[in-house]
Amino acid sequence: MSQPDDPLDDLHRRHGSYRKWWLKKREPKPVDQVVAQLLQRKGYAEVRQAGEVEAAWSEAIGPDFAPVTAVGRLRRGALEVIAADSLTMQELTFQKEELLAQMQTALPDAGITSLRFRVGTVR
Description:
By secondary structure, this protein is of the alpha+beta class.
């Protein structure tokens, strides 16, 4: 029968493998990954996208309805549009398919699949 290993040898072996693992985790990351993570954490990408969505909405809706509507959040492909009053919301509902097609053409990468209208305060 073989003799059991010395407990200190086992400890040194485990410490060495842990140190390699820890050092590997501490390797420098590429700058593009760090910047992408920072933008994602701080929400700067959403701000940029929101500006693009607002510009596309203003162009799609035209000068008549632009002052009485605002773009809300884009969640799971549904773009929320805020109307100043129920009359404006009803008119937007009549033009929904046309507006959706224009938004999808203007922003193909945004993934807009539907429009949802609600009455609220337009800033």
